[in-house]
Amino acid sequence: NSQFKEMFKASHFIFEYSIRKLKELFPDSEVHIFYLPSTTSSYEIISHFTSINSDMGIPSIINSDLLSKRHLEVCRKILKTAKKLNVSFFDTTPFLREAGAKGYIHGPKDWAHFNESGYKAISDSISEFLLYPNKHYQNCAT
User: Fold this and answer.
1) 130-139 long-range contacts, Cβ below 8 Å, gap at least 24?
2) Does the pLDDT at position 1 exceed 70?
3) 140 closest CA partner among 88, 76, 96
4) Any alpha helices (H) in the chain, and if so which ranges?
5) How far apart (Å, rounded) are the C-alpha atoms in residues 56 and 61?
6) Does residue 115 contact residue 104 with C-beta atoms inside 8 Å?
7) Contact of 105 with 114, CB cutoff 8 Å
């Protein structure tokens, strides 16, 4: 847990710095942050435990509530940063979960990346946001 917090802190520092630099180098460009959940957070998990592969490739069993808590923690931190930097934010999680409820959006050869259905769900959701940016979209804070 402390290893996750340290990695997250360092990753977020780099993320925020990168967005600041991007805005500085391209002041006339629109900047949008599109939040993509992890593979497991792309589905509504009903089991109390979930099998995952850790960053080191070591399989692990994790409490699904902890997984959900981490997802919200990361998403909310990125949303907070987007507001702080005055950058638009779009959480693709609801769209991916809706697609994931109808069938797999990852795999079957590579479960860490989207399949055709996943890419369609993500591209359709981002397109909708870009076409209708003033519409209210559900995100990790609502």
Assistant:
1) 130/32, 133/88, 137/90, 137/91, 137/94, 138/91, 138/94, 139/35, 139/75, 139/79, 139/89, 139/90, 139/91, 139/93, 139/94
2) no
3) 76
4) 2-25, 64-84, 93-102, 116-131
5) 14
6) yes
7) yes
Other Cβ atoms closer than 10 A to 93: 22
For the chain, the first-to-last Cα distance in angstroms comes to 26
- Residues 13, 16: Cα–Cα separation, whole Å: 5
Rounded Cα distance between 31 and 23, Å, is 7
Confidence check: pLDDT of 12 > 90: yes
Structure tokens at 64: 């699904």
| Phi and psi, residue 59, nearest 5° | -60, 145
According to DSSP H, which parts of 47-115 are helical?
64-84, 93-102
Q: Cα torsion for 88, 75, 126, 82, to the nearest 10°?
A: 10
Q: Are 100 and 44 in contact (CB under 8 A)?
A: yes
Could you tell me the pTM of the whole model?
0.89
Question: Count of CB atoms within 10 A of residue 92's CB?
Answer: 22
Residue 77 near residue 131 (C-beta atoms within 8 A): no
Q: What pLDDT score does 50 carry? A: 86
